[in-house]
Amino acid sequence: MVSEALSSPATDGGPGIVNILMDLGPACTSNAGTFRDALRLITQKLPGGGKSSNSSSSSSGAIPLKEGGIARLIHFFAAVGARTKDGSSIRNSDASLSSAFVGVLMNDTTDWNKADKTSPSDWNLDVVSQVLTDFSLSLHWPLVARSFDFPEFKVRDTRHLELLLALYSKASSGGKFSLPLEPIAGVGDWRNKEGQLTLLRALLIVTPSVYKFPLEEGEERKDAAAALVDVNSSGGGTASPSLLSSSCPNPGGFACSKVLQRLLSLSDEPKLHQSAREVLGMGLQSCPEIILCALVRLQLSNAAAMNVADTPPQQLASIRARAQAGMPLKGELMRELIPLFFSPNPKWVVKNPTGAIRRLWEISPNTVVAACVEAFKVLPTAEERAEVVAFQCNLLRKSLPNADNGALQQVVSGSKDADFAYTLACYMADNGLLDFTNWLSERTNNVGKAAVTLQSIVFLTRTYNKAKLRSTAQGDGDSVKLVLSWENLASMLRMLTMVDNETMSQVIPNTDTTLGSQGKIILERCLQMYPNIATLTNSSSSNNANSPPNQPDEIEEAANAYFQKIYASEESAREVVEMLKRFKTSGSSRENDIFACMIHNLFDEYRFFSKYPEKELRITGILFGLLIKEQLVSSITLGIALRYVLEALRKPPNQSPQSGKMFRFGMFALEQFKERLHEWPQYCSHIVQIGHLREGYAALVGEIETAMDDNVTNETREILQLLSSIKSQNRNITLVNLSELWR
């Protein structure tokens, strides 16, 4: 097979062929006949050469040079030809292979002093190329290319490379074909890895007119096109690219999987790591779009190859080695590429970020999401994270067609990092790109109610003190850039108040606290910092760009009017409670907001209840209790309401007028919802432990204790029924079996 034939270089006569040529001097290339005679002489002097005068090669006059020898000849004549009289060697230009680069890599043992004593023009390369064409049909030329892997091989500069390519092309095909890439970067590991690296570097710094990398149709060509941008396009369209945005002389080379894979493999050699890093660094500086896309695609293709079923073990080991090649360098490159594309970077602006992101999304949307998250996570402050999310959102909208309806939703929903997902969702909601309430609902369906509850609590704990009204924060291009808007804060708080008690009773992993207790803390902090948060627009409508927001002043005025009706009489209070039941479940955003505002204002007034006149105190207590009885408050707000009542009941009624008022408020409220006390046995136990309540209200305490006993009796009855049922089905079941069933 071809791959087997190219897995190692052909044997040759060693450096002797070059040393003999130097001894002969430029005169041996004065004409084609003289040069052919010189080559015959050389092959006779080489070990094993010319021993059989009766050989067919000798009798026919053919020169018995094989692939390895031809490779040495091409390398030698390209090297001496690159030493021009006027010093115009590419080594002295900006595109040169620096002497430091070559010197670090190679320990050149060839005696070039002999060649330097002669004028380069004395070596007739036209004659050399003419004679080398004699071998065009007799040799396997890909093996000649593979045979450049000899110890003394190195490419000294771009002029050296140009001549080497020209001689190879002329000799192998009369100038029709170029140096094949497979033997020099694909099949087999070179023994002379330093020389291979100088060759690859030289190929990457010459223009395509000198060497055009043979890119595969499809993926590699698409990666190369990431560095192109249409001159008439703003970057977000689908027009064909036509203008090179890269300063790289030969960017197609970095899109070539074979070249990229070989450079990564070479970087695993300790003494070559820095040099290989410098070569890829050229691409990072001049065509980062291609490096980003090609690097990701290469890694994904290697990973996919490892997952192919029925792959022979030896082949699988080779695939695994390719996938693991250059992992440290891959990490270094990605740590530079991610902030370059996915963070605002005024010091270094990528020329075609939209083309790169569009191509990267085509390769792997998950990689785009992961890169966004990575650029987000490295930033220390909430403000910086909000800024980078805004940048990423705008980048995706410019890069991807229909991003608002597709890619952005995939990014915000596909991220496993909750902090990133919430920050992006908040930005999108603030700018009319999603409905935040619906997003919370969808996330709950995807990851679970407890997970979203915890994520919301954690996110609010980090950001609640930075909340601002949307209308106060217009960013670039009239976009809203906030860490957290009041509108999104209100949406999350309302969501938390609707979480059921069973979920709120769950213990947060690795802590001894529950979701409910942490939820109460953050809710109280938010209400304390933003007393009017409940007057904000309901999230179900505030994020709809087609719905005009309700005005906080209007909502506050309506809520105050209903409070005036409440304090007219006790009956009016009960009527308003019925109205609030309707408002809570209404599809009207205005009624939802009035409900939220009234609940918030009532809770906010708790600290002033001790100053209320008796009539207003009684009506307020009745209203507070009815809210609990009619389940108008739930979850976190229910917990706060019950705690307020318990705190009021604990106030000694005769200690002071203020203390007495608070106690009476608690009694008024408790009377309204005592029929629900059996639902909260632990709460009941706190009430019956209040000393002055047991002394002055023994009947009430007895009633509460009876409710507690009834609750225990009901639970016991259910357990006994379960035991009876199990026993009837399996009379041999043991107590240990029962405990297992109940786990």
What's the helix and strand layout?
Elements: H1 2-5, H2 16-24, H3 32-45, H4 56-60, H5 67-81, H6 99-105, H7 113-116, H8 125-132, H9 141-146, H10 158-173, H11 182-186, H12 193-205, H13 219-225, E1 228-229, E2 243-244, H14 252-255, H15 257-267, H16 273-286, H17 288-306, H18 313-324, H19 327-342, H20 353-363, H21 365-377, H22 382-399, H23 407-414, H24 418-430, H25 436-447, H26 449-463, E3 467-468, E4 484-485, H27 486-497, H28 501-504, H29 515-529, H30 539-542, H31 552-566, H32 570-585, H33 589-604, H34 614-629, H35 635-649, H36 657-673, H37 681-688, H38 691-696, H39 698-729, H40 735-741
Parallel strand pairs: 3-4
Antiparallel strand pairs: 1-2
Q: Which term fits the overall shape?
A: rod-shaped
Strand order of the largest sheet: 1-2
Q: Give a quick account of the main beta sheet: strands, pairing sense, barrel closure.
A: 2 strands, antiparallel
Helix/strand-derived category reads: mainly alpha
* Separation of the first and last Cα atoms: 64 Å
β-strand number: 4
**Rg, please?**
40 Å
The low-pLDDT segments are: 49-60, 85-109, 230-244, 537-548, 722-743
Quick check: average pLDDT? 80
Count of alpha and pi helical runs: 40
How big a fraction of the residues is strand?
under 5%
Helix content: 55-70%
Descriptive notes:
With 743 residues, this protein is mainly α. 62% of the residues lie in helices and 1% in strands. The strands form two sheets. Strands 1-2 form a two-stranded antiparallel ribbon. Strands 3-4 form a two-stranded parallel sheet. Helix 17 (288-306) crosses helix 19 (327-342), helix 21 packs antiparallel against helix 22 and helix 32 packs parallel to helix 34. The chain is rod-shaped and about 130 Å long. Residues 49-60, 85-109, 230-244, 537-548 and 722-743 have low confidence and may be disordered.
